[in-house]
Design brief:
Number of helices: 4
Number of strands: 4
Distance between the termini: 70 Å
Structural class: alpha+beta
Amino acid sequence: MKSFKSARLVLALVLGFAASGLAFAADTFDLSKAKAAYPLTTCVVSGEPLTDGDMGPPIDYVYKQDGQADRLVRFCCKMCIGKFKKTPDKYLKLIDDAAAAKAKVTPVATTSSDCPMGVCAKPGV
């Protein structure tokens, strides 16, 4: 009887750890996807290019806020992280505005016969 209780306890622990691992895997932040979709080519704080410059390579920072999805914020240097943390909403709005502008539909010249007068609307161009 004692071994049966021990086996049940071990099984419960194993299943609990497995379930928590699955939940963690489902909630993982996909940095590569976030970087590909990031709308800015400059630091949201300083305006400096996000390239490997005098301050080193850009810094990818995952901003976490209770009840919100994790957000990628890219910086040119460590000093900008501190400035961001003082007023994150201000900088997150700039990123959101840039994403919205990037997603807007803009007319593009084309030679397609589907487009009257050679101009069609294409998203993100």
